[in-house]
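I am still getting used to backbone structure tokens and would like to learn alongside you. To get us started, please write out a protein record for me. Start from the sequence, derive the backbone structure tokens from it, and show both lines together. Once you have written the record down, we can walk along the chain together:
***
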Amino acid sequence: MPLAARVTGLKIMLNLTEEIAGRIRAHGTETYPHECCGALLGRDVEGGREVVDLLPLVNQRKDSPRNRFSITPEDFRAAERAAASRRLELVGWYHSHPDHPALPSEYDREHAWPWYSYVIVSVAGGEPGTITCWRLAEDRMRFLHEEILTTARAAR
């Protein structure tokens, strides 16, 4: 079992650099009022998971991109290839919630997979706000909050 899949108490940790968090916020701002989406590339480390890079994707949802996002099988394969080319893993996904809190919706739960980290950034009136992270429980019935540790730069 990967280190990040182990839960000590109820605390799960995701490490983001300020630069990565800024890129997620910028992507949410750029696509507002529609949802942005992308892949989190990183690795499991002692004490949690770290995100080293992003792969911004185009929201493929045509019928309601303001409150839904869709990733195609081709996007998924591209994310896996991008991670492998950097000697990283596809560790999760990010998306924005335009004019809504950074909390997972029922739609998010129904379309999520256990193990992956899900970062959500709220974007209100075009301005990025809170970033949160979640991981779907193994029973797929609820999300577990994943605490975010933001650092100035990536650990080596």
In short: Helices lie at 18-31, 73-85, 106-111.
